[in-house]
Amino acid sequence: MPTGMVPDITRIIESITQRDQDTVQLLLNRYNTQYAECFFFNTEAQERRKQQQLEEFRKRKVRDYAPDSDSDSDDDQSDLTLRQDLSAALLCFISSQLQPAVLRVCLHTLRILSRDRRALGPMVTDSALLTLANMGGIALLQACPQQEKEGAENQLGRAQKQTHTRAVSGCEQAAGADAALSGGSVVSSSVPAEGAVAPAAQGSINYFYKWKHDGGHAVLSRGKKDTQQEETEETEKEEDGEVCRKEALKVLCNIIYNSPQAQERASALRLLQGLWETLKEEIWRREPLSCHFYKLRLLFLLTALRPELRLQLQQERGVSVLTKALEQCLAVRWAVEYEVLTDSTEPPISKEVSQKVIEILKTLFNITHMFHRQEPDEEDAALYRHLAAVLRHCLLLSCDGEDTLEELQGHTVNVLSALPLTCLDVLVSVPVDQASHKCEGVNMDCVHKLLLFMDRRLNRGLKLKEKLTPVLNLLTESSRVHRETRCYLRQKILPPLRDVAIRPEQDSALRGQLVRLMTHVDTDVKDCAAELLFVLCKENVSRFVKYTGYGNAAGLLAARGLLNGRRNPSDSQYSSDSDSDTEEYREAKARINLVTGRVEAEQPDPMEGMTDEEKEEEARHLMSMINRLSREQIIQPMGVTAEGRLAPLWGQMSDCTLEEREDEDEDEDLNLMPDGRKDKQME
Q: Is the dihedral of CA 14, 20, 26, 32 positive or negative?
């Protein structure tokens, strides 16, 4: 749409104050069409300033350019103020009795405006949060402060003055009716406009709220189903009400995400309690609404951004209820305890179901990762095993779209990595069938899925710390406590060595990919990759060096105090099976360079033809250079202590003789002469 066709915000505010619903709907529809995919409202001004800065830099080579006038910033501030005034006007407008279509378009505009963090002022008030929560179907036991309502009305009045319009009594009456309902009284259910459906807490009977201005009270009247036409109208009203609830929840999610102040106020207003009670009721009724996803998204945001709400939800038996929600979304069928029936012939789950499952998994991670290192009691252990069985089913599912499957499996791995290790035995404690991947008679289907998932993340190579470290940690810990898992992963990642002509990091298989990560710049990625390979080698130093090369293994060995090659005390916790070598490896073993981990080509001896005196002189010269670099703190020579750790060799290196120092000084003087002759003064 051309810019000239975008309605002026001042005209929209004027139509709102005049309560002209038809005009408001028309103008907001144009506004929403123009900014439907807009997340930055001052893009043109920013681009204009960048172009001016670039031109000024080309002329004067000055990077920081300040415009001569403040016209751009003034325009930005004016636009920002208008958007804030429009938000205040809309929040007042939606509190009155509106047609469903008008309410829907108003909420859509608020959703667009809530993307701008700078314009959230009118939305980050108790009255605005409570209004949106009630319209979203969240029952809150919290009064709306009168001063917040007065603040919203004052801001609307300022907007009316700026647009040079007169306030009419309609908006004031709507504000008065809204204050009569929420100011000083308990708000226990949503208050949609006439024709919008009340929250589904009423069961199978449909009720509609209708305003009666007798004393400022809301009177509840039952919907009529006398004729087929009325049933059709009620269905349309129900659909309109559902759309409005979705839009209100979207606005609320944007506000909570973009504003720390809104997060704090939501916690104070006990928004989580109301949302959680609503979700629990829908879950236990087994009739999740179509806006269920946005309530789950809001639940995730609250627990992700407010640490105290995570603990609160965990104490409200959040793990148990959300596990039940997972079972309902996935239509889980149980065979026996901790075993979910999985049918490979079933069609992939839809994207809508996948998105709900992902939101549940994200919230589960928020409330479970705090207890990862704690030993669960008997009741919690049973709960976590039950959840792990459902998560195993999630890993084996198929979804519409590879990206959706990748995201679903990623969040499943995150939750699994947050569960106590003692509860992960259910991942491999299922019967084996003919199509199963197995190791020593144990079902390895889940482990195989995790291995494929890790391989995909390795190949993508993006955001390795966030994307890869959870699955590396999960496989490492599982291998440490489950012998069959370790054996299976070792077969796939560290098969018997055959080709010893290439370096370990040059291998194109999984081993090479993990070895390359052992020298990654990110410490967490490097440590996780090295730890997995070390555990697969049963924490045996010689075996670890054999598969990775001493140069790649030195980092982990130094951190563990194993550089001297002594046996790791933790070796005793592993079985005593031997590491069988291939014929190719045994033949080349004597010629393998332990540092690089491969057979190196023979190099000529650099000291060939030198006498013993020349070799000794070369060694003294090398020691002198090392001493000089060490004294100037360019390098710090290190050695391996008896405990197998690196320690500075300063004490040993500082015992050089006076003669060596004189030789160094003499060498320095010689280097000053262009032809290499000694200075006459020295002679």
A: positive
